[in-house]
Amino acid sequence: MQMDFPDLDRFDRAILMALAEDGRVSVADLARRIGLSKSPTQARLKRLEADGVITGYRAMLDPIRLGLDHVAFVEVRMTDTREKALAEFNAAVRKIAEIEQAHMIASNFDYLLKVRTGSMSEYRAVLAEKISSLPHVANTSTFVAMEAVKETGLLGGIDRET
Asked: What's the pTM?
């Protein structure tokens, strides 16, 4: 999969890579890492934020240490896939804290949800009380993850020249 970043030069991509690895890096340290002085680095950073390339900063939490080590992927088949039904489903999904990710899929099912809970019994309650009662849900299938082999943010492709 090739990513196209027509307005990003090598310094912009270096800023993005550095921030993806350490979002708390100071502007001075960031400037040293990418090989520019502080003022142009800060200007580029502000432009990337203003352009919506950088959408925010947040702490990365360890779900295992927080007791949230049960991950299930849920295939959802819808009873209705017209735009209004999809919008209603999407809005309802955004309100469920246990749903970590939701993707509309081009397949024999309509959505794939990543659900994180503390245990199988907690997951069953989320499935029964929240997911199954989402608007326009026909049925679901659950796949339980045994181990996360790779979970990273957006890093691949940023450092390639366009």
From this structure: 0.80
